[in-house]
Amino acid sequence: MPAPVITATALTKKYKEFTAVDGISFEVAPGESFGLLGPNGAGKSTTMRMVGAVSTRTSGDLSILGFDPDEFGPEIRSQLGVVPQADNLDTELRVRDNLLVYGRYFGLSRAVIAKRADELLDFAQLADRAKAKVDDLSGGMKRRLTIARALINDPRILLLDEPTTGLDPQARHILWDRLFRLKEQGTTLVLTTHYMDEAEQLCDRLVVVDKGQIMAEGAPAALIREHSSREVLEVRFGSERNAEAAEKVEGIGRLELLPDRILIYSEDGDGALAEVVRRGLTPITSLVRRSSLEDVFLRLTGRTLIE
Amino acid sequence: MTSVITTRTRRWGAWYVAEHRLRTMRTYAGTIVATTLGTPILYLFAFGVGLATLVTGNVGPGGTSYLQFVAPALLATAAVTVGAEEYLLGILMGFKWNPIFTGMNSTPLTARQIIDGTAIFIIIRMAIVVVVYYVVMLAFGAVPSPWGLTMIPIGILTGLAFSPLAAFSATIYEDKGQFPVMQRVVVLPLTLFSGTVFPLTQLPIYLQWIGWLSPLWHGSELGRQASYGPTEPLWLTIVHVVYLLVFALGGWALTVHIATKRLNK
Amino acid sequence: MSSVRVNPAGPDAAVKIRGSGSVRALYSGNASAVLGRGLLATRSTNWTIVLTGVFEPIFYLLALGIGLGSYVQNVTDPLGNQIPYAAYIAPALLAVSAMNGAIYDSTWNVFFKMHFGKLYEGMLATRLGPLDVALGEISLALLRGAAYGLAFLVVMQVLGLNLSWSAILALPALVVIAFGFASLGMGITSYLKTFQQMNWISFLLLPMFLLSGTFYPLSVYPQVIQFFVQLLPLWHGVELVRGLTTGALAPVMLLHLLYFAVMIAVGLFFTTRRLRALFLD
Ligand SMILES: Nc1ncnc2c1ncn2[C@@H]1O[C@H](COP(=O)(O)OP(=O)(O)OP(=O)(O)O)[C@@H](O)[C@H]1O
Ligand SMILES: [Mg+2]
């Protein structure tokens, strides 16, 4: 096993009294693609910022590429590419100038930056907008430019905080493809996302975080095996009657009561549906499907659970 | 290889930041050129020529004209105007409205370099404004002594002495109109009661003290010593220099401190 | 009112309502709703700005009236009377502050709301028309301007700088001046797209501020320059207010008022037209 590029041990971040990240530990191997999942406010972005060496940890240990970010911020940041959750492009500059200026901060020569800027504009499909003002771009185009900007220094680790939020399906698939290729070249990826399909596609391994703590860790498939059944039955009775129906279906399998439907976890979805009908209930709609990461997420991040 | 890159950024990072800011300035080239040229001509004409026709008071030693009296103060005021704008709006802009500082902070740059680079940029901006002012003053015949050339660094130093405003800006997270308030309650009195267009001694004592506190008064008086002085004892001239230096350096150090904390929050 | 209402079912009425020149498309008689929102916003967020705005002209008055005043000879007013410099410059500062307040509210403030807050987009998605928005925003600026003007006049009274009873008329005059600047400012702003263009406004205000007979009489200038200065709105404002506070009343003041009436009409026309084009077409 090669030495990990990121090692966090009991990593903690407090804002005054409030603990945003509460003693999490994880390791990321070189070339690995590592995901952080969790509900809003779980502490994902805070963790990303500590890993990005722009937020000082309150306690615990953190090592990025063998450096302690408290002491070697510039050394670490010179090898990172960062896509923050909120774009922070320079809206007073034009599209291509954003890349040029940013490249300078890594001490790259103008010639190198100019060449990479053009390649990256192609990658972000913004070549024809090179001279446009950033403010005139659409939300998704700004996102693509932010991602392109993060690659200007050919980073060893790429930190992506909800990279595809706001992208259209094509752009999303293009980005996935590009991320796969970066990974093949050995770039380490750390990303957060609220799209479970994205996490399943992109991540070799992921952690589910809630309230600043790690709830589970593992490869997507393993997490599904471990925290969910093989199949899920989704039944709807109409918003008014879901709660009442839920009482009657108790015992068939683990239940998840969502505002619009009930999820019943079972190894045999069709069998579960037959049992629901046998108990005298007629759902408006029903669906049997395989378990997904979303089920793991719902289970671990504490919805109303009725076991 | 990467270590070479970090070394380069460590040495030149602040200049990269200044370069970025200058690049941004290009967008505003039109108004900046117009303001840089137009302001000195207008002010020197309005006060040095127009108002001068009404002035009866004694302005300085020998044949010093009212024009020569106001000119050094107007020059210093121009630098202060640039400073106040950059220190208040420029800094908050970078942190908040157009958060380029956060972007810079995820590169190898340090917070200190970001502030230093901004300072370099502001000095360049002030230098341009002050040099143009000086040239226009020469054209108006407002500078009797060759020592008047030192008004250029004096003007820049006076502008830099307003850098505590940058520290103030850097503490703002939510824009609740602190700027207009700061502008009106602090910057405006410091500018108006600073013996620029009339000697400070014309003010009643209960307003004069504001002038003593104002870097602009110290800068204006210093400029006058250079342009047609001396009009005051040497110790007072030294006080002016020290006062300006303390504010310029103190404000800068405080800003670096606050920005570092803010960017690594 | 109801008697003049056209029958909505009639064919003419339908055409009229849809026609782009229809007043109903522009104005729903509810500018006060816009004003109400402005007051609420003022009260809940930026009252310190409003409050400290009072100090601004007073600082100017203290510095220039007292400091500069004791340093400068007396000035002759338009009727040939000698008046102290402080009494000469105070009304000019008053007019300038009315201008500045109105310009700030109608330019930067409006610009931000149009481009960042998207406030007007929201307003015009309701029954409000562009003229409601324009009048509502301008009334807010006027209300604030009048409050500042009153505070300033009181300070002038205390310092003995109001030389005549007619000074009390300076208050309505200020409102007219502010109205002129606000409506023209808003009209121009509605056409501007970038910060750079906004900076030009500030730049153009500077010569007006310095040269409009604010600090010294126009007679200092050669004839040609005098003529150009007399075309500028601030000169008319300064002359009007100065005539009232010093008591040098003259028929020409009606001409100044006419100037502002035209300015108001032109400003409102362009603002309404532009808001309509921007948000309703
Ligand atoms: N600068 C700050 N000061 C105070 N509290 C903060 C700060 N930044 C984040 N927090 C708090 O820390 C918690 C975690 O925030 P964080 O941004 O890391 O969440 P997240 O997991 O990224 O959520 P999301 O999915 O919504 O992006 C939140 O409760 C947030 O309010
Ligand atoms: Mg987040």
TrEMBL record, chain A:
Gene Ontology cellular component list: plasma membrane
Keyword presence, Membrane: yes
An annotated Gene Ontology molecular function: ATP binding
Protein's GO biological process: response to antibiotic
UniProt name for this protein: Lipooligosaccharide transport system ATP-binding protein
Entry-linked InterPro entries: AAA+_ATPase, ABC_transporter-like_ATP-bd, ABC_transporter-like_CS, ABC_transporter_ATP-binding, P-loop_NTPase
Membrane topology annotation: Peripheral membrane protein
ABC transporter domain sequence ranges: 6-236
One Pfam family in the UniProt entry: ABC_tran
Presence of the UniProt keyword Nucleotide-binding in the record: yes
Organism: Salinibacterium xinjiangense
Keyword terms, alphabetized: Antibiotic resistance, ATP-binding, Cell membrane, Membrane, Nucleotide-binding, Translocase, Transport
Subcellular location: Cell membrane
Family recorded in the similarity comment: Belongs to the ABC transporter superfamily.
TrEMBL record, chain B:
Coiled-coil stretches noted in the UniProt entry, renumbered to this chain: none
Domain of life: Bacteria
ABC transmembrane type-2 domain span: 31-262
Pfam families to which the protein is assigned, alphabetical: ABC2_membrane
Membrane-crossing segments per the record: 28-49, 69-93, 114-140, 152-173, 185-207, 234-259
Keyword entries, A-Z: Antibiotic resistance, Cell membrane, Membrane, Transmembrane, Transmembrane helix, Transport
Cellular component terms per the entry's GO annotation: ATP-binding cassette (ABC) transporter complex
MF terms (GO), sorted A to Z: ABC-type transporter activity
Subcellular location: Cell membrane; Membrane
A biological-process GO annotation: response to antibiotic
Membrane topology qualifier: Multi-pass membrane protein
Cross-referenced InterPro entries: ABC2_TM, ABC2_TM_bact-type, ABC_2_transport, Nod_factor_ABC_transporter
Protein family (similarity comment): Belongs to the ABC-2 integral membrane protein family.
Name of the featured protein: Transport permease protein
Organism annotation: Salinibacterium xinjiangense
UniProtKB/TrEMBL annotation, chain C:
Assigned GO CC terms: ATP-binding cassette (ABC) transporter complex
Organism domain of life: Bacteria
Annotated ABC transmembrane type-2 domain residues: 48-278
Keyword Transport: yes
Keywords from the named record: Antibiotic resistance, Cell membrane, Membrane, Transmembrane, Transmembrane helix, Transport
Pfam families linked to this entry: ABC2_membrane (PF01061)
Entries under PROSITE patterns matching the protein: ABC_TM2
Membrane topology: Multi-pass membrane protein
GO MF annotation list: ABC-type transporter activity
Location of the protein in the cell: Cell membrane; Membrane
Annotated transmembrane regions: 47-68, 88-112, 133-159, 165-188, 200-218, 248-270
Record has Transmembrane helix as a keyword: yes
A single GO BP: response to antibiotic
Family: Belongs to the ABC-2 integral membrane protein family.
UniProt cross-references to PANTHER family, sorted A to Z: NODULATION PROTEIN J
Protein's name according to its UniProt entry: Transport permease protein
Organism of provenance: Salinibacterium xinjiangense
